[in-house]
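Batch manifest, entry 17 of 40.
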Amino acid sequence: MYKHAVANGYAAVGASQNDDFSVTHKLVTSADGLGQFKNSKYVFSDAYDAFADIKKALRESRKVIFIGLPCQVAALRKLFRDDSLLLVDLVCHGTTPLSYLRQHIGMLSRQAGSQNACRFATRPMTLASTL
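Output type: structure tokens
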């Protein structure tokens, strides 16, 4: 969905995992930046700064696609009543606090050595997953 939107002039906003395992929503304007939005994150994503980026993009007459949690989409829907903003909400089963993830990573690090990367729900790329 992101690739199609960016190819058609949209800025894309999605969840990106940071080096400290926190997750923030970020705005990108080219396909080169879309890789950071891949994979599940399983912790709440901070979209606060992205809201300002979205506001700026809409004021510049840019189209924007935002993919996030239903509560984030609801907030954006209330803030911006703009046909140039495409909102996509994901199914939410509740999010885990970042502190729980960090505690679990700390336990795994003590058991197996240092941990500097964390990826969820990764799978080998198949023809079906590229369609």
